[in-house]
Amino acid sequence: MTESSNEHGHQASPCVMVIFGASGDLTKRKLIPALCNLAKDKLLSPQFAVIGFSYNSITTEAFRAQLTKDIKEFAPEPIDSRLWDWFLERTYYVQGDFQDSAAYGRLQAQIAAVEKTHSTQGNRFFYLAVSPKFFAPVVKQLGQAGLTQEEDGKWARVIVEKPFGRDLASAKQLNRDLKQILDEQQIYRIDHYLGKETVQNLMVFRFANSIAEPLWNRNFIDSVQITAAETVGVEQRGGYYETSGALRDMVPNHLFQLLSLTAMEPPISFDADAVRDKQAEILHAVQVPKPEDVMSMAVRGQYGQGMAGAERLPAYRGEPMVSAASNTETYAALRLEIDNWRWAGVPFYLRTGKRLPRRTTEIAIQFRRSPFVLFRNTKIADLQTNRLVIHIQPDEGISLRFGAKVPGPVMQLGLVNMEFDYARDFGRSHSTGYERLMYDCMMGDATLFQRADMVEAGWRVIQPVLDAWSAAPAKCFPNYAAGSWGPAESDELLGRDGRAWRTIGEDHPASEPSEVPAVLGRATAGAH
Ligand code: BG6
After folding, report:
1. Residue 526 Cα, ligand 1 centroid: separation in angstroms?
2. Is the distance from the beta carbon of residue 249 to the nearest atom of ligand 1 less than 6 Å?
């Protein structure tokens, strides 16, 4: 681990990373496995160390033992024992209450000791994997302990997890609180969707290929559908979810990242601010719904009991830590419009929900119909249009649907797909999705992190929906069965525009048989 670069790129700068919330789920499931992957790829500096900070009263030895147990369960692939020993040697623990200044004195002493032992050169990287109520207090304490100062070329950066606020006012307040202590360039607001390969590939697909950009506008695109569907319910997170709901949990953050990368103008460079300026611009161009329009452009749902195959699924109201009369939505769909030259008149439909039939995140670009006059007398069940689907998970790739002649003496049109499949073409990745984000933070590259204005622009769009929904609690909950595709109102939302949600899975090779009309046949053309 001594070279300063390798085949993957450059090693990150020396630093000590402090994880607040070191005994939590995120640390064991994602952060530690991601650090190990970075170490394996020789992207961590040999002058790196990590300090876990949390409320649990344990020693460094006990923390190391716990991590050793957890990594076996959560690493995406087995970890080499020498690499793990290397990692453990530079892992420490500090016990403390997030609001107790004495604990920050202990942390300061531990950082000073680690800086000496591992020559971390005074660079500090704080990861706030804690409940949002501690974001501002932890940063304040860090500031008071003098740990956030950047002097003599040393850096101090803070990754703040989601949720960043619970509405526009609280997001603004949190930005103000953080900026009392930190400069904007020290704050890394993380959204784990930006760690996903296919999300990053969106920019490459759009801007590194000359075929996409000329078509990427209202002249050729009819509409866009962004779906983040989950099969799981709220699991053990009922307590949090009751205060959040599907809209807050997924839309202003994850879905708006997908929307902004899909719709933004080309940046003039890949500099953090060049890219984020364009993302912020598009979020500002999304029409803020008028209060009187909310009920017709937004749909909410909550799952009742249902089935997944032979398995009986409980209703949301029967989940642990959920009120039996809960009005929290577990499904949200929106119809948004973007007011600019590229997108005016092109609806963007967004939907997300728990306990849907299939786990899928994707962006479907629906192209306009071509003039079918030539085929007026041709045997076709339906005049189908071109569609490009960017599959974000679980099967990452891109597929393009187009019409082709079905072989035979009679002119018949069929639909075929051209496929790019990440796993097939590049091999399966063992990434947790956090590697790139933590590495970028250590490198001082904030491109994949949200800036204050982006976060606020996202909340600004959904604030009227939050207000309207809380003023008029849903009377129809539960309104979809667990294991179904959400409430009927969601289909009506598109139906009113003469459109329909696409049938998920109909054009991916890894998927189940499609609903393409039998008369059209079905073929899949490989990308090679
Ligand atoms: C989290 C939400 O931010 O994202 C969860 O709080 C959701 O409710 C999760 O399940 C989805 O992430 P992914 O990567 O599984 O799509």
Report:
1. 31
2. yes
